[in-house]
Amino acid sequence: MKIIAHRGASADAPENTLAAMELALEQDADAIELDVHCVEGELVVIHDRYLDHTTSGQGLVHNMTLAQLATLDAGGGQRVPTLWQVMQCVAGRCDINIELKGLGTADPLLPLLARAEQSLGFNPEQWLISSFHHPMLAQVKQARPELKIGTLFAGCPLRYAEVASELNAHSVHLSANFLDAELLADSRRRGTKIYVYTVDRPDEVAEMIELGVDGIFTNYPARTRALCHSQRL
Ligand code: G3P
Ligand code: MG
């Protein structure tokens, strides 16, 4: 079972910052998950459309300039990193699940992936591109059919099989609240992996291991890794 650090190791470091990504590596995560928006044509790593929740700034992320963004505190003196900065920091040492959160993020993603593959030692297998916005995933898949696509669902994953099939998706990502053994078995028959978010409670981690999910998004990679080891996974 893959352990994916949700917004980095975000229980112990400010979410979606370089510190959270470095800590996720130290905590032995298989992959990091991060959220991206677009600022001046560049992808930046932040969850919300608005700055208020996680930074010292206010207003819409996409109304900022990169220079303005670089002055904000994203927690503990950390900055809002660009995706390129995270790629440089990770430099091929773990997989990256890039969640396309902001509209218009598929366009700048494609050249960035190519650049990271050419100059930072990433293998295309290491990318997992996900989004609740399925048309952006279709755009990525059309441009790079070999890339792994994760179809995200909020709430009950209606038509998950059709959507995953249309996008030739690697995985379906859903809230743990909506997972059951039937969905898991059906998806396994179809050859699609199931990743669940956001699983932090140790008893819920154990439940997901028992169900046999392919991966979990967690804010606690180290604690989750220890639980998996104790269950010999
Ligand atoms: O990608 C899994 C999870 O991150 C999706 O929800 O809101 O945390 O980005 P959110
Ligand atoms: Mg996310």
Automatic annotation (TrEMBL):
Organism: Ferrimonas gelatinilytica
Name of the molecule in the record: Glycerophosphodiester phosphodiesterase
Pfam families: GDPD (PF03009)
Classification via InterPro entries: GP_PDE_dom, PLC-like_Pdiesterase_TIM-brl
GP-PDE domain boundaries: 1-228
Gene3D superfamilies, sorted: Phosphatidylinositol (PI) phosphodiesterase
